[in-house]
Amino acid sequence: MSAANDVGAAAAPGFLDAFAGVSEAVESGAGLPEVARATAHALSASVAIVDSSANVLAVACRSPEDERAVLSGGTVLELKVADEPVGELRYRVRDSVPPPALVRMVGTMVGQEVERARMPERASRAEVGTFLSDLLERRTTDRDNILARASELGADLTAGASVLVTRAVPQHPEEGDWRARVLAVAERGLRAVERDSLVAWVDDDVVVLVPSPDAELAQR
């Protein structure tokens, strides 16, 4: 499509109506499931919204088989906010291919909603990272202060704790936010062993604090 045609498509009533539906879903704070449905309607496609750790956040598909097809072989649009990757919009067109300008504009709105949805999680992770960094660097040494801060983050350290430090290095070039994916894998593994464990990146290391002095539990 030429630049002139692209601009013309953006001015078409159908184009604007399609974009307006996504914009309204985002502005109303309806959440990612509603944004996914509006996106599917706008693009006339089955869609899946995925975060930077490859977790599926919302889908709007006709069937489980359709969802699997979208996730495994759909068109992928990287979602960015301020040039930072926040996830992907994966879609599988049902009828005619949507105008590239519409896809870009919808992708911008979806990216903003993904970023908004993950803000509480990012704040929590930042707090955990600051706490673990303070422990390792001995900026926090008062026992009562340590126990109080850990408790605020959901970990009871009154019986003691174990700390694990691991360096993660990709073996080959990785696309997207590989550090977020590593952290997500670590968090899932920890929940299966000790759900109140804390984990975060501290500089180039993944630091895990297990709220138990049990060495065998920490080694799991």
List keywords for this structure.
single chain; 220 residues; alpha+beta; Beta-Lactamase; 8 helices; 52% helix; disordered N terminus
Description:
The structure is a single chain. The protein is of the alpha+beta class. It folds into two domains: 116 residues, GAF domain (Beta-Lactamase); 78 residues, no CATH class. 52% of the residues lie in helices and 21% in strands. The strands form two sheets. The protein has a four-stranded antiparallel sheet with strand order 2-1-4-3. A three-stranded antiparallel sheet has the order 5-7-6, with helices on both faces. Strand 6 and strand 7 form a beta hairpin. Helix 2 packs antiparallel against helix 3. The termini are far apart.
CATH topology of the largest domain: Beta-Lactamase
Order of helices and strands: HHHEEHEEHHEHEEH
Largest sheet: 4 strands, antiparallel
Number of helices: 8
Could you tell me how far the N terminus lies from the C terminus, measured between alpha carbons in angstroms? Answer: 55 Å
Q: Provide the CATH superfamily of the largest domain.
A: GAF domain
What overall form do the CA principal axes indicate?
A: elongated
- Count of individual beta strands: 7
The helix content, as a percent range, equals 40-55%
Radius of gyration: 22 Å
Structural class: alpha+beta
Low-confidence stretches: 1-13
CATH class of the largest domain: Alpha Beta
Q: Going across the biggest sheet, name each strand in turn.
A: 2-1-4-3
The whole-number mean of residue pLDDT values reads 83
Q: Per DSSP, what share of the residues sits in E-state strands of 2 or more residues? A: 15-25%
Count of discrete structural domains: 2
CATH architecture descriptor name of the largest domain:
2-Layer Sandwich
